Amino acid sequence: MDGELGAFLRSRREARRPVEVGLPEGPRRRTPGLRRAELATLAQVSVEYLTRLEQGAPFVDRWRQRPVTAARTGLLTVRHPAAGLLRLNVETLELAEADPQRLVVQLPADAATAIALDQLAGRRPGQLRAVAG
């Protein structure tokens, strides 16, 4: 499992061209695909955080050391005052009973929710949010 998250993130970042996410190509690129700074800006996280994710530091060791109980999945429906009905696929990984930490992942369950979330976040619809593949 070591390096799998980082390899996945790097492969997805390198597979996207800047023009695909609304950025100029630029005259000189030393890396294929998006630069870390570009992806960090689009994802609204720091470059340092993205670098740590690619290196696997924040999650791999921490979650490997603790027993994870069974994942819970489901569909969450929320009515937002401006965006209307939002449908989210939710997966929760909880640690053992003695540790109250949990990891919750929420992704749009349909295209209408994805578009509404993009608009709420001030992104162009379809801009980088979650990359499948």
Describe this structure in words.
- This protein has helices at residues 4-15, 36-43, 47-55, 60-64, 111-121; strands at 72-80, 84-94, 102-108.
- It is of the alpha+beta class and 133 residues long.
- The chain has two domains: 1-65, no CATH class; 67-133, no CATH class.
- A hairpin with a 7-residue loop joins β2 and β3.
- α2 (36-43) packs across α3.
- It is flat.
- The two termini are 18 Å apart.
Helical/strand content category = alpha+beta
In what order do the strands lie side by side in the largest sheet? Answer: 1-2-3
Q: What is the CA-atom radius of gyration, in angstroms?
A: 17 Å
Instruction: List the helices and strands in order.
Output: HHHHEEEH
SS summary, helix count: 5
Helix content: 25-40%
Topology of this protein?
Blueprint: H1 4-15, H2 36-43, H3 47-55, H4 60-64, E1 72-80, E2 84-94, E3 102-108, H5 111-121
Antiparallel strand pairs: 1-2, 2-3
Task: Describe the structure concisely.
The protein is of the alpha+beta class and 133 residues long. Helices cover 34% and strands 20% of the residues. Helix 2 packs across helix 3 (47-55).
Q: Tags for this entry?
A:
133 residues; alpha+beta; 2 domains; three-stranded antiparallel sheet; 5 helices; 3 strands; flat
